[in-house]
Amino acid sequence: MSNLNYYWIAQFKDDKYFGEYDENQKEHSFAEIKERIDDIKFFFLINKQNTYDNFIVDIENGSISVGHYSKLLENITEKKNIRLIFFKRRTVEVAQRDLQTVKEDIYFILGFQYNTITGENRKLLLQIDNNGNFVIGE
Amino acid sequence: MSASLQFSESNGAGEVVTDGISNLNFGNNDSANIVTATYPVVAGQNSYEKYLRLNFGGVFSEITNVKFYKSAGAYVAGEAIKAAANQVFATPVATTSLIATVDVPTAIGSALDIESTEGTPTKFTSAGYSKYLVLQAQSTGSSPSGSVNTKTFTVQWDEI
User: Fold this and answer.
1) What are the chain B neighbours of A91 within 8 Å (beta carbons)?
2) Domain housing A109
3) A55, part of any domain
4) Quick check: B129 contacting A, CB < 8 Å?
């Protein structure tokens, strides 16, 4: 969809890549990598206009980086069974009288779920708007 | 890649389906795309029930967590919009609905969960309709004559 400012790329453990857009700019569905989701090493969400504006989920170590260098979350706790979380949350408001869109929001929900060494199940998520503003939460 | 959303309305005893309707106006006629000046709801009476479905299209892998609520538009005195999600179609009536019996939610926290027809857990894995959402506008004798405030409805969903 052309009004989305970000696209994704998955890097697998064998260091092969699969992206939302291939070299021919053909779009690919996230469903195409769902069967290999456990083999993902890094997951990138990249701004179409500025590739330095990106979000990187390190699935092997359980951390999220924002921007080119700054790491948002270090490995402050030991994690295991780390699983990628990625989806878009869309909100469309329509007027009753004509069903025209009054407001439309899209957020990328990006992060991972993991277990602590004592077995607790936790999530670390970023809610990122289409302009790259984000909030972090569990 | 993204999904697209249209509203579909079903009317009549034999279910006439209108996809891509152009409004959600209530009226004293069982039809889609109602012009309220032509089919006004008289104070103290109800509109015909509206049997609506969300119709997702476009390109997506999976849609889940679909919510519906009224996000804006104040009621006038005696006005209410009643709702029921995940229904099967029945001929719309203008008597007080036995299907749409709860106030349409006004916040995401209490929004109606709209299910697909693909089973449980509910999700859309291809283009198609949701189950039916039934709405009915109701009024009382204290409702003022004239137009009511237009409402804004919100649909939220998660998509990959």
Assistant:
1) 154-156
2) 6-137
3) yes
4) no
ipTM of this complex = 0.93
- Quickly count helices (H) and strands (E) in chain B: 0, 10
The domain segmentation of chain B, as residue ranges, is 3-159
Q: Which CATH entry fits the domain spanning B3-159: 1.20.120, 3.40.710, 2.60.40, 3.40.50?
A: 2.60.40
The whole-number pLDDT of residue B41 equals 93
* Strand A63-66 versus strand A54-58 pairing type: antiparallel
Give per-residue pLDDT as tens, B1-39.
689 999 999 999 999 999 999 999 999 999 999 999 999
How does pLDDT run across A70-119, given as a tens digit for each residue?
666 655 678 889 999 999 999 999 999 999 999 999 999 999 999 988 88
Tallying the residues shown for chain B, one arrives at: 160
In a domain, A1, yes or no: no
Which of the residues A86, A96, A100 would you substitute to probe the B interface, choosing the one with the greatest number of B C-beta atoms within 10 Å?
A96
The strands making up A63-66's β-sheet, listed across from edge to edge, are A17-19, A6-12, A40-47, A54-58, A63-66
How many structural domains comprise chain A? 1
Of A1, A34, A96, the CB nearest to B152: A96
Q: Please, which pLDDT band fits residue A66 given cuts at 50, 70 and 90? A: confident
Residues of B in contact with A31 (CB under 8 A): 61-62, 160
